[in-house]
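Support case: protoporphyrin IX containing FE complex. Customer-provided input:
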Amino acid sequence: MDLSLSSTLSYVVLTFTLLLLLKFLIPTTKSNKKNHSKLPPGPTPLPIIGNLLKLGNKPHHSLANLADIHGPIMTLKLGQVTTVVISSADMAKEVLLTHDLITSNRTVPDALSVLNHDQYSLSFMRVSPRWRDLRKICNYQLFSNKTLDSSQALRRRKLQDLLNDIERCSKVGEAVDVGKAAFKTTVNLLSNTFFSVDFVHSAKEAGEYKEIIVSILKEVGVPNVSDFFPMLKFLDLQGIRKRSIVSVKKVLSIFKRFVGERVKMREGTGSIGNDDVLDALLNMSSDGGKIEMDKDEIEHLLLNIFVAGTDTTTYTLEWAMAELIHNPEMMSKLKEELEKTVGKGIPVEETDIAKLPYMQAVIKETFRLHPPVPLLLPRRAEIDVKIGDYVIPKDAQILINAWVVGRDPTKWENPNVFIPERFLDSEIDIKGHHFELIPFGSGRRTCPGLPLAIRMLPLMLGSLVNCFDWKLEDGLNVEDFNKEDEFGITLEKSQPVRIVPTKLY
Ligand code: HEM
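Agent response - structure generated as follows:
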């Protein structure tokens, strides 16, 4: 647990002790104690702070260890918040399929309840007619096959920019920071898909933008006293809300500028602009159609999509490359498949993806071992939810540990070893139908960006592997290569993947 949280907890304990004393001094007539006899089992909570100290720096690891003791459905008291943690495919299916409707709302982290983002953000708003409208916009406008097919050429160009950057490094024998390069490309793949322009131009700009996005995700992922003791929210004891406002404002201002410029251009020319997704969204706000969106909503939707889509995709690519560097025989197998199907040294096209089963297996195996959102996004029980002999009480927070589900030894042979071959003769996909592999979640709130993510990842991974040979920087051995994560709401690799390319012809 980070130090600032532990010291903050001392204040919390003090404040609560005073409150408890007051409670005992002023007797109440009615007991509002609920019968918790059917709560799933879990570690014994300490007074006031409950099981908070059990979370540690990497909650997905600590919760996996606790699940070994208490089972695949367990209760933790995180401060005042009753939290039920799901750690098996069968239990995940119960929540995400059987009880999807009554567990579809979320607990909203205080770090995101800033500048109205919680009300506008698709990821955290309540399931409501507005949420349904936004999901429809995602399914039919942003991520439909038709939209994505028609923006393929733009993504091809951005991929070529990435390959040109890497070629420059290969000429001088310079190492590439795969995470940084992938981040710049992903941001521009998204911005070109949605508004036909580059969002960031230089590696420096990409680095600055990545820093803001990662800081938002870290603030959301860090254990926050305000979330565990909602009555102390107003104190913002760790300063998380304050920092989050600064970062969210920074990104929102970029989108405001973008949207503002496009509105001006449309007004000036009287045309609908570029006929891209941004124009489609602006048309909705002006043509009085079935779904209306105002400018604020568009800006928050874009913020949400960029935050949700960039780091997740980048992290997966970084891990896929790290695993391939660790496993040279798998790298060779992938190169062979690409050479046979696409042709050595040629960038991968979206139409090639279906013909590359080994590459798809590498990506699935990366998702199994390294799901970028290890605890998915938190859900909340709308009413009491009965699962087997247990009851998840109304308002409890539900966390699904996709990281441990992907490593369940009863579902996966050699669960901690990277073996893409396991997917070659397997029906298991990542679309939320097979609960042993749920990196994108499942059910109503499953990730709407999946269709784009599963185009961008093979494009980048396949082209990096097919157009270049890769080796570690001088003096580094595979064993020195760190395979650790840092926890935010999405994971970050704690050591960047820096590898040296050689161009292939
Ligand atoms: C490797 C890529 C990605 C992964 C692993 C991923 C994972 C996830 C997960 C686990 C959730 C929560 C699902 C649940 O609660 O059941 C989610 C939600 C979401 N994702 Fe993704 N995501 C990825 C890429 C993207 C992209 C590219 C976009 C958009 C461009 C995106 C936009 C969203 C949005 C808007 C939500 C919230 C949906 C809602 O609550 O209704 N994601 N994602």
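The chain is about 50% helix and 10% strand.

Case will auto-close in a few days if no follow-up is received.
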